[in-house]
Structure formats: structure tokens, C-alpha cells
């Protein structure tokens, strides 16, 4: 359950329906070691299966969302050890099976794997001064948790190539301007309160509609336009089979607040 004690993360419920995961390895700027990722996977799965959680907020500290994969853990790896344990593959589980919306609130460093983790979220919010980047090239390696793919889809090849080849950072303000972040905020307090507010808004809607909305938007990243539009239409049709569609449209006609079935 959500009260599970973890070593490297904290799980709380700051608002009804909102599960918050706070990365909490301050001495290493939330470097994403395998034990931390294992805890994060566990917490996300618990929140996914918790009937009381409707939206998930993932954050770090004011100073660091996460400064990357754990360099000290990676340093001694060999090709065969990385290959045979499929190092980093467990990161793909983080969001692949997550049907509930995930909001990342990023302040401070979001570097390497930290940037990649933020890019896995459904909605990314950050401070204007957040420090994003894929500095792996400086370590003699490359992004390994989807950065070259997700960043390139988010900001285009020209900018992604420059960032990944130079290892140069970009700010939260740039992240918003380039469409990586949905919004950027002047300060940390504002980031956290607005992230919570958005999570709460989403948690107030029909769960079945929210899950469907996330599913169809994510499909746009994998499908061509024709197939994507067709997929969307099928899911749209399917929602006419949900009670919440009846509840929502009836409430509109009666000028009342919808009381969702699947809350
Ligand atoms: N892994 C392990 N430890 C890390 C770490 C990381 N990614 N990032 C920071 N730390 C540790 C530091 O080693 C230091 O520990 P000690 O006190 O024991 O020395 C502690 O966190 C504090 O860090 P700094 O003293 O360096 O703090 P700073 O404020 O001077 O600098 C920083 C902050 C610019 C973020 C700097 O820590 C830094 O450059 N970190 C590494 C960033 C990086 O290269 N990330 C990419 C990792 S590779 C990757 O992620 C692969 C992938 O694609 C999955």
C-alpha cells in the first residue's frame, strides 16, 4: 500500500485522489540508483492499483529533481554485465504500465536519467531555473533511458542533436518555450502548488475518461495520423458505453455538477 516505508522515496497523499512520490536521496542529488528505481516502480504500481488514487505527482527537491543515473553504480559495469542484466530496462516499466496520469514537478537539476525520467511523465511542470540536460557525452556515454528518442520527439532533431552532442544544459524557461514542459513557474512554491492543483483537477474527472484521454494522446507518439485518428474515434465510441458519459452529459443538461461513478 501507499504507507509502505521506502528508503529513497516518500509516498504521500497531499490531496484526496492525488498520490505524490518524492525522490528522497538528497546526499546524491536524487541520483537514480537501481534500488531507487525499484522502489519507484513499486510505488507507482501501488498507486496504479490503489482505488483511491486518480493522479500521481512525481517530484524531487527544490535543488534536484534527479541528477541522473547513479554514476558510481555504473562506473564498473562491463558490456556483458549491462547487456545480460538489461541495465536500465526496468526504467521502462516505470510508465509503460501506468494508466493513471503522471505529472512531474521539476526543480533544480534534471540531468541525464533525471531528464529522461521527467520526459516520461504525461505532464511536465518545472521552475524557470530548472536545469535540464543530457550530459552523458561528457562521461563517455549516451542517454540510456529514452532521452535520444523522447527529447527528439519533443523538441525536434536539430535542438536534440545539439544538446545530446554537446551535453549542454537547458533551462526550465527554455523547456517551456520548446514544448518539453507544459508550464514553467517563477518559484518552487508556485511550482508545487500549481502541480498539485492540476493533479487535483484531473483527479476530479471521470477516471475512465481520464485513462482514455491519456491513452489516446500517448498513441499519437506511436501511430501515424490516419491510424491515430481512427484509434481515437474507437476509444471515443467506447466511452458511450461508460456510465460516466451518461452522468457527465446529464449533469450538463441539468446544470449540475457531475457525480462520477468511477471516482
Ligand atoms: N550519480 C551519483 N552521484 C551523484 C550524481 C550521479 N548522477 N550526481 C551527483 N552525485 C553526488 C555527487 O557525487 C556528490 O556526492 P559526494 O558528496 O559523495 O561527492 C553529491 O551528489 C553532490 O553533488 P556535487 O557535489 O557534484 O553537487 P554540485 O551542486 O557541485 O553539482 C551537479 C551538481 C552539476 C548536478 C553535479 O553533481 C553533476 O554534474 N552530476 C552528474 C550529472 C550527470 O552527469 N548526470 C548524467 C548521469 S549518466 C545517466 O544518467 C545515464 C542515463 O542516461 C540513464
Main attributes of the structure:
263 residues; Lyase 2-enoyl-coa Hydratase, Chain  A, domain 2; 2 domains; 12 helices; globular; binds acetoacetyl-coenzyme A; Enoyl-CoA_hydra/iso; ClpP/crotonase-like_dom_sf; Enoyl-CoA_hydra_C
Write a structural description:
- This is Probable enoyl-CoA hydratase, mitochondrial.
- Keywords: Fatty acid metabolism, Lipid metabolism, Lyase.
- Belongs to the enoyl-CoA hydratase/isomerase family.
- One of its GO terms (molecular function) is enoyl-CoA hydratase activity.
- InterPro entries: ClpP/crotonase-like_dom_sf, Enoyl-CoA_hyd/isom_CS, Enoyl-CoA_hydra/iso, Enoyl-CoA_hydra_C.
- It is a single chain.
- This protein has helices at 34-49, 71-74, 79-84, 89-96, 113-119, 147-155, 157-166, 172-177, 188-203, 207-219, 225-239, 243-253; strands spanning 9-15, 18-23, 55-59, 64-66, 102-106, 109-111, 123-127, 131-133, 170-171, 183-185.
- It has 263 residues and is of the alpha/beta class.
- The protein has two domains: 9-203, 2-enoyl-CoA Hydratase, Chain A, domain 1 (Alpha-Beta Complex), CATH 3.90.226; 207-253, Lyase 2-enoyl-coa Hydratase, Chain  A, domain 2, CATH 1.10.12.10.
- The strands form two sheets. Strands 1-2-3-5-7-10 form a six-stranded mixed β-sheet, with helices on both faces. A four-stranded mixed β-sheet has the order 4-6-8-9.
- A hairpin with a 2-residue loop joins strand 1 (9-15) and strand 2 (18-23).
- The protein is globular and about 60 Å long.
- The two termini are 18 Å apart.
- The model has no long low-confidence stretch (mean pLDDT 96).
- The protein binds acetoacetyl-coenzyme A.
- The site of acetoacetyl-coenzyme A (CAA) has 22 residues, from helix 2, strand 6 and helix 5.
Amino acid at each position: 500500500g501507499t504507507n509502505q516505508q521506502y528508503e529513497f522515496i516518500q509516498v504521500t497523499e497531499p490531496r484526496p485522489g492525488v498520490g505524490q512520490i518524492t525522490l528522497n536521496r538528497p546526499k546524491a542529488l536524487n541520483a537514480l540508483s537501481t534500488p531507487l528505481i525499484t522502489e519507484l516502480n513499486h510505488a507507482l504500481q501501488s498507486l496504479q492499483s490503489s482505488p483511491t488514487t486518480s493522479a500521481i505527482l512525481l517530484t524531487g527537491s527544490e535543488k534536484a529533481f534527479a541528477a541522473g543515473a547513479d554514476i558510481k553504480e555504473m562506473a564498473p559495469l562491463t558490456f556483458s554485465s549491462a547487456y545480460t542484466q538489461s541495465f536500465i530496462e526496468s526504467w521502462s516499466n516505470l510508465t509503460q504500465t501506468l494508466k493513471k496520469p503522471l505529472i512531474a514537478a521539476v526543480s533544480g537539476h534534471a540531468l541525464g536519467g533525471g531528464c529522461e525520467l521527467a520526459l516520461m511523465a504525461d505532464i511536465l511542470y518545472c521552475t524557470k531555473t530548472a536545469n535540464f540536460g543530457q550530459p552523458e557525452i561528457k562521461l563517455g556515454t549516451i542517454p540510456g533511458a529514452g532521452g535520444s528518442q523522447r527529447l527528439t520527439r519533443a523538441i525536434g532533431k536539430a535542438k536534440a542533436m545539439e544538446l545530446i552532442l554537446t551535453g549542454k544544459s537547458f533551462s526550465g524557461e527554455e523547456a517551456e518555450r520548446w514544448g518539453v514542459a507544459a508550464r514553467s513557474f517563477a518559484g518552487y512554491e508556485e511550482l508545487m502548488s500549481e502541480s498539485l492543483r492540476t493533479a487535483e483537477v484531473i483527479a476530479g474527472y471521470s477516471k475512465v475518461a481520464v485513462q482514455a484521454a491519456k491513452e489516446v494522446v500517448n498513441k499519437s507518439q506511436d501511430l501515424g495520423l490516419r491510424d491515430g485518428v481512427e484509434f481515437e474515434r474507437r476509444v471515443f465510441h467506447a466511452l458511450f458505453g461508460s456510465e460516466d458519459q451518461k452522468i457527465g452529459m446529464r449533469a450538463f443538461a441539468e446544470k449540475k455538477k457531475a457525480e462520477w461513478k468511477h471516482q
